[in-house]
Amino acid sequence: MKELTSMEKYDVIIIGSGLGGLSAGAILARKGKKVLILEKHYQIGGFATSFQRKEFKFDIALHQTGGINKTFYKDILQKCGIYDKLEFIRHKYLYEAINPDSELKVKNGNAEDLKKQLIKQFPKEKLGIYLWFFLTRKIGREFYWWDKTAASNKIFFAIFLCFAPFLIPLLMVSHKISLQKILNFCAKNKKLQSALMQLGGYYGNSVDIACQIPFIGNYGYYFDGGYYIKNGGQNVAVALKGVIEKNGGQALNNSEVKKILVKNETVIGVETKKQSYYGKKIIASASPFIIYEQLLKDWNGSKRELEKINKMKIGTTLSQVYIGLNVGIEKINRKFKNSYLVFINNLKDDFYKDLILAFHSNIDKSAAPEEKATLCVTFLDNYERWDLPKKEYKKKKDEELKKIFELLQKHLSDLEKYIEVVEFGTPKTMERYTGNPKGAVYGFSQKIGQAGFDRFKNKSPLKNLYFASAWTFPCGGFEGAIRAGYKVAKKI
Ligand SMILES: Cc1cc2nc3c(=O)[nH]c(=O)nc-3n(C[C@H](O)[C@H](O)[C@H](O)COP(=O)(O)OP(=O)(O)OC[C@H]3O[C@@H](n4cnc5c(N)ncnc54)[C@H](O)[C@@H]3O)c2cc1C
Fold it and tell me: How many C-beta neighbours within 10 Å does residue 435 have?
């Protein structure tokens, strides 16, 4: 690989190595562009990373990703040059849901099976159940069609848009209607509504304001399957970095960008503590707040842009407890011997209503040695609860851990007895790690007016500055951020 000096001009400089930035970088590097990634952290990937404690490897984020079969997302992974480098693990069950009065084991990529189970539980709602699956599938297909055409030539896409009301009618209508309205139209029973929205919990929006479009990816899991990536989500980041380097680019860790250089309303480069780098185009994988509040604070348009984004609602944050156990899961509860994702719903607690359990080591042996296991417990959280002085924060962490273990007692008895290592990542941790305000994991809230076609745009008003991350079009998550990267690469 040719070494570049800072005085040489890069074609593209990418601020932050989240999946949005890395995927844009990989596509552009494969097209012959000279790419530089600057990451403030000691490792690349943003949320798509893992960490090691003793013999256990914990995935910071990934539970499931999808769309790797006949979808346009698969095309994008191929365009990034990583599709063949990743091994996708498909568990037999998409998830198991434990409710206070019922249980549901949902076969992976088998919507028919789920329909049957739900009709058995809610026979009066048969028509509505069919309608819900028909609508979600149809809207998903329309989005796929729109996405693929948008990526084709401009004239073809312009013609497509003229006929959009006929070609993608459901997508256009559902884009402006809250999920709650669509749910009410299909299902009367609240328990059925919750079951239909099980995967929506990932996004944390209350359904009465949530937009349908960001859920399309998740809903695809029911039809095409949800997958984990062998050796963890960080493997996606590592593969993308590999493509960038193989094609002459560089990714530098411990390189926090402190300033974006602007001349005549055009971005021309960036500064780290140590040096300046010049580039023709700049892509921000870091949040727009970091860009306008910190890196462009001397640019006179920043105030206007900040006013705009400050009016927007920031999306959900999550907390995750990472646990290494000195026994196999079957020692604690035989029922979970081969489980991967288990949703424990409607716990009778003021705050912890739903918990997601992920037994990564059950499906990926690289997570723990034999006879041992990992368990990640995830739940939607609220940043403000944790915005405390250091001592109180630590105390709260200890107290809440205890509470979580108590809640889990019914399902994993004596869990505490087997714990070898435990780490608690709160919204503060998520914020500290990525710089995303309020620890947002999917960028701006995916609510009506901020999601789908109304999502934060990938292009800044400043010439040559772009955004590719969970904050931007189309949405958050692994797939959303990678699609954003593709979109920006295409624009460039
Ligand atoms: C607990 C948890 C569970 C999740 N589960 C799933 C899941 O199952 N499926 C799924 O699809 N998604 C999941 N997600 C969400 C998904 O991981 C994210 O939406 C996605 O990875 C965000 O990518 P991004 O491109 O926005 O970048 P981010 O991951 O936000 O990374 C931004 C990067 O920019 C860097 N940066 C910031 N400022 C600077 C600067 N000044 N200079 C240099 N670098 C800078 C940061 O260090 C960071 O590396 C989960 C997230 C969490 C936290």
Answer: 17
DSSP code at position 106: E
* pLDDT, tens digit (0-9, with 9 covering 90-100), for 447-464: 999 988 899 999 999 999
What residue's CA is closest to ligand 1, atom 41? 257
Pair (75, 130) in one structural domain: no
Distance CA 1, CA 276 (A): 21
Count how many domains the chain has: 3
Sign of torsion, CA 42 46 51 57?
A: negative
Which ligand 1 atom is the nearest neighbour of the CA of 320?
1
Output DSSP code: residue 313.
P
- pTM of full prediction above 0.85: yes
Classify 94 as helix, strand or coil.
Answer: strand
pLDDT tens, 281-323?
999 999 999 999 999 999 999 999 999 999 999 999 999 999 9
| Alpha carbon of residue 388 to chain centroid | 26
Residue bearing the CA closest to ligand 1, atom 27: 18
Domain boundary among 224, 259, 283: 224
Closest residue CA from atom 44 of ligand 1: 16
The residue among 168, 199, 224 that closes a domain is 224
β-bridge pairing 317-325 and 419-425: antiparallel
469 lines ligand 1 (CB under 6 A): yes
- Tell whether 285 and 348 lie within a shared domain: no
Q: State if residue 481 touches ligand 1 by the CB under 6 angstroms criterion.
A: yes
Same domain, 199 and 260: no
Closest CA to 64 of 264, 342, 284, 251: 342
179 neighbors 197 (Cβ within 8 angstroms): yes
**Residue 191, domain extent:** 110-224
